[in-house]
Every structure is written in C-alpha cells, then in structure tokens.
TrEMBL record:
Domain spans labelled Alpha-amylase C-terminal: 423-511
Annotated CDD domains: AmyAc_bac_euk_AmyA
EC number: 3.2.1.1
Primary enzyme class: hydrolase
GO molecular function annotations of the record: alpha-amylase activity; metal ion binding
GO biological-process terms attached to the record: carbohydrate metabolic process
Protein name: Alpha-amylase
Region: Disordered, residue numbers: 368-387
Length: 512
C-alpha cells in the first residue's frame, strides 16, 4: 500500500516534467512578443510541418502600458490583472491560436507572471492593456480584485522593501524584485486567484507554463498552487495529463537559493547551459569544445530529467538576467547557429529555441542602452505582424532564428534521434568534435582556426546522406554537401574553418 502511494506521488510529480509534445516532436520555440494571430499562422504553415513540439508565448494577461521608455518589451512582466488581452491580442485571438496550434499538434506554453503585479511606481489610471483601472500606489487592482492586504509588504524585512541581498532567501521571496509589487502567495485568496487564471488557460487548451521569477516564490506556495491545476484539456491531450511546468530560476551557484529546491515541482531553467556553451564556442577562459565530451550532468548541471535548456533567452540576449557577454545570440549568427545546433543534437534536457526581434544594440560601458526596446511596432505602439519573405525568412525586424535552415533542420534532427544515446564521440583535443546519436544521426563541428580532415565512425548504416547544415535533402538529391558512409559506418569529413557554417550533420531521414 505504502509503495502504491509512493509511486502515485512520484508519478504525479513527474507528470509536470513532461512537455506532452506530440508524435515524437521535441523542441520548443519561444516566439517572443509575437501576436496570437501570427503564432496561429506559424503553427500551421511552419512549426507543424517542421516538427516543432511547442511554442512558449509571451504573457497573455492584462499588463501595464508604459510610455517612457516607449512601450518596452518588459511592460508585459507587470500584470494589472488576469483578463486575457495583451499586446499580442485579445481573448478570442488567444483562444483561436491555441485551438489552431493544438489542431496541428503544436503545444502552447504560457509565460505565467504570478509572483507580482506592476511596479510600485506604476501610477494610477487605465494605462493597461485591457483598459482596467488600477492604482499601484495604493496596491489596488480591482479587476482581479487584489488590494493592499494581498501583498507581502508586512513580511519583507529590508529597509527599502526591495531585495537587497540575493544571499538571503527570505528577502528574495518576501521583498520586491526591482520594485514589483510582491503578491502574498501564502494567502488562500491569492492562491485561488492565481490558480483560477492558470486553470482558465488550461481549459482553453494550453499544455503548460513557463513560470516567471520562481526564485522569488516559496516552493510551498507553488506546490499549493500547482496542486490546484486542472488536467489538460482532453480534446487534445490524453486523460490525466498534468500541465508541463518549467520554472525560471537563475542559479549559477553561490546564492542562498538553488534550483534543486524546485525540482519536485516541475522542470527548471538551466542557466549554466547557455552561459557555459557560449564560453566554449567563444573559446574564452581557455575553454575548448573537446571538453564537452561530458556535457550535461558531467559539467555540474542539474539532473537531465529536471532541465529546460537554451542558448539564450529574452533576458540574457540583451544583458538582463544572468550569463553576461558570454551568451551567444543572433547578433553572432555563426556562433549562434553552432551553439543552438549543438544543443539540439545533444540528448540533455528539454530544449528551447529563442526566436527574437531585432533592436539597435548600443552598448556603453558594457550596458545596452536600448535593452528596453519593444517588438517591431506601428506608430500607435501596436505590434507589427510577422511578414514571411520568399526565402522563408521573416521581415520587418523579426529575426526568426527558428526559421534559419540550420536551426530548423537541427530541430528535425532532434526528433529523428530522439531516445538514442550519445555515442561515437571523437575530438582532436581542441575545438573539433563529433558525436552521434545511436545509429540515427551524427554531427561534426570545426571551431578551430584550421581545417578538419578526418575519417570517423558515425555508427550509421552505409549510404549517401545529405548534410542538413549546408543544405538538405530535396527529393532524391542534396542541396548542400553529400556525405558517403561506408558499410563499416565510417565516413570522411572535410570542413574548412572558413566555411560559412563550419559543421556538418546527417541523420536517418537525410539519407538518399
Ligand atoms: C522594469 C525596469 C526596472 C523597474 C521595474 C519596475 O527595468 O528598472 O524597477 O520595471 O517598474 C523584466 C525586465 C525588468 C523589468 C521587469 C518588469 O528584465 O528590467 O523591470 O520585466 O517590467 C532576476 C530574477 C529573474 C528575472 C531577472 C530579470 O531572479 O526572475 O531578474 N527574470 C524574469 C523575467 C524578466 C522579468 C521578470 C522576471 C520580472 O524573465 O523578463 O523582468 O517579471 C542575479 C540573480 C538573478 C536575478 C539577476 C538580475 O543574477 O541570481 O535571480 O534575476 O541577478 O537581477 C551573474 C550572477 C547571477 C546574477 C547575474 C546578474 O551572472 O552569477 O546570479 O550576474 O547580476
């Protein structure tokens, strides 16, 4: 009996670690600041046909509108209430998007901002995305409603009311993060409102949540709130499916709070992953690609089953959050493609690809003066839609990394090799490495300043394969390089360090 209960509890907690992606699909893409109408179209025309498993969307709830600076992206991390109208669209558009994406097998994960409401300096009025009145000064949000007794002010023990020291777990949880009004999640009433908001989205068909600012919430409070969540909508998910939960905790070590306090509740963002892999591909601090033979837990990362991994996110691509200058973004396209491809080829973690908008980066003394700039917008501040060019790239300032051929093809690679072990490692003790995934895929990187010219055991069945980096398989031919694997699984690779993309990848479905 005890064993049954134990297994049941274990099963329940593990369930929230499962992204519930469909048909062997694996990777998630963050369509940062996209409009719901554009995401719906993208699911149908691009994400489903190319095997993406799901989309992380920007916060869908009512948020503050800020004019100075002009409509920054981060206004969406300042909730005014749980009405579902935001810069990305209204409730009908949201519902339509969730339905259309689910209908083509692409999951939606909501960025849930539940730690706080807007900043204390947010003023009063109706400058909110659904036009609801609020008063930040008196902590009055009638549209929920929340009032001043629903906030943590009495609990916080710092003079300023702000988090002053990340070494002190109490203040990190009970005080204000950058002035944001900190919700009292220990209160039954507040828990109910937050769970109600999340349940409405679950019932609409979302598959789970990226939970914002989790370090700033007590694990016990989150456990209570997650415990109230409905199972996923059985129109699209099998009965008894728990929502996927991935929690934003920045843990590079050396603070009072660590990621593992949240492992039992869902997956956790592994910020060491992008910070370290960026350092490796940049060859900073004496790092070499050959050292990544033990990539994953061998590098001190969290257990595989707990990790949500990414090369950059919406914060650290512009100097917010953690990771600093090591992070490789679309501003360094060659390194970015290689790092994202390494992540997608490697079995560790649930992988998330960043899809960005461009802004005018202007770094003064290490800080980007334009780190606030919002998505491509019209003069009235409304977000522009995403136009698709003839070559499948995006226009109007949308970067669409997920559409870059190399990244798109590696998302497919990840699906094809899903479940296969990391195998057939090779390195030159410098920055040339190769590894396979069982007999289903093989990838070779040359990040040295000289050519790679070597014969390797790929572990793959003999035949002719199309490299999915320089091109891909189209009909019965390769649009890029061709790799001949012999009957013994060996193949010869030649990669110039001057190639536009100095790496090669083949998989079972790229065989002629
Ligand atoms: C805006 C304005 C503020 C204003 C505020 C209220 O910028 O000036 O006071 O409104 O009016 C986003 C933006 C914020 C924005 C906010 C609200 O990034 O600029 O504030 O919306 O509009 C911490 C949190 C983490 C958070 C991260 C940005 O722990 O949860 O800061 N990320 C999420 C979202 C993010 C959002 C929020 C939370 C709020 O992804 O987009 O903010 O909803 C250490 C700690 C980290 C801490 C960082 C930064 O990191 O460990 O926990 O993240 O500091 O404060 C090394 C260390 C590393 C350290 C890092 C940075 O790398 O190893 O540990 O340095 O110091």
């Amino acid at each position: 009996m005890k064993l049954v209960i134990l297994l049941a509890l274990f099963g329940v907690s593990l369930a929230q670690h499962n992204p519930h992606t469909k048909h062997g699909r694996t990777a998630i893409v963050h369509l940062f600041e996209w409009r719901w109408a554009d995401i719906a179209a993208e699911c149908e025309r691009f994400l489903a046909p190319n095997g993406f498993g799901g989309v992380q969307i920007s916060p869908p709830n009512e948020h503050i509108i800020i004019n100075n600076p002009w409509r920054p992206w981060w206004q969406r991390y300042q909730p005014i209430g749980y009405n579902l109208c935001s810069r990305s669209g209204n409730e009908n558009e949201l519902r339509n998007m969730i339905t259309r994406c689910n209908n083509v097998g692409v999951n939606i994960y909501v960025d849930a901002v539940i730690n706080h409401m807007c900043g204390a300096g947010g003023g009063q009025g109706t400058h909110s995305s659904c036009g609801s009145w609020f008063n930040a000064h008196t902590e009055d949000f009638p549209t929920v409603p929340f009032s001043n007794s629903d906030f943590n002010d009495h609990k916080c023990r710092t003079g300023s009311g702000e988090i002053e020291n990340y070494g002190d777990s109490n203040q990190v949880r009970d005080c204000r993060l950058v002035g944001l009004l900190d919700l009292a999640l220990e209160k039954e009433y507040v828990r109910g409102k937050v769970a109600g908001f999340m349940n409405k989205l679950i019932d609409m068909g979302v598959a789970g949540f990226r939970v914002d600012a989790v370090k700033h919430m007590w694990p016990g409070d989150l456990s209570n709130i997650y415990g109230r969540l409905h199972n996923l909508n059985t129109k699209w998910f099998s009965g008894g499916s728990k929502p996927f939960i991935f929690q934003e905790v920045i843990d590079l070590g050396g603070e009072g709070i660590s990621s593992k306090e949240y492992f039992h509740l869902g997956r956790v963002t592994e910020f060491k992953y992008g910070a370290k892999l960026g350092t490796v591909f940049r060859k900073w601090n004496g790092e070499k690609l050959s050292y990544t033979k033990s990539w994953g837990e061998g590098w001190g990362f969290m257990p595989n089953g707990n990790a949500l991994v990414f090369i950059d996110n919406h914060d650290n691509q512009r100097g917010h959050g953690a990771g600093g200058a090591a992070i490789v973004t679309f501003f360094d396209p060659k390194l970015h493609k290689m790092a994202v491809s390494y992540m997608l080829a490697h079995p560790y973690g649930v992988a998330r690809v960043m899809s960005s908008f461009r802004w005018n980066r202007h770094i003064v003394n290490g800080k980007d003066q334009n780190d606030w700039m919002g998505p491509p917008s019209k003069s009235d501040g409304s977000t522009k839609s995403v136009p698709i060019n003839a070559d499948q790239t995006c226009g109007d300032g949308w970067v669409c990394e997920h559409r870059w051929r190399q990244i798109k093809n590696m998302a497919i690679f990840r699906n094809v090799v899903n479940g296969q072990p990391h195998s057939n490692w090779w390195d030159n003790q410098s920055n040339q490495v190769a590894f396979g995934r069982g007999n289903r895929g093989f990838i070779v990187f040359n990040n040295d300043d000289w050519d790679l010219d070597v014969t390797l055991n790929t572990g793959m069945p003999g035949g002719t394969y199309c490299d999915v980096i320089s091109g891909q398989k189209e009909g019965s031919r390769c649009t890029g390089k061709q790799i001949n694997v012999g009957g013994n699984g060996h193949a010869h690779f030649k990669i110039s360090n001057r190639d536009e993309d100095p790496y090669v990848a083949i998989h079972a479905d790229s065989k002629l």
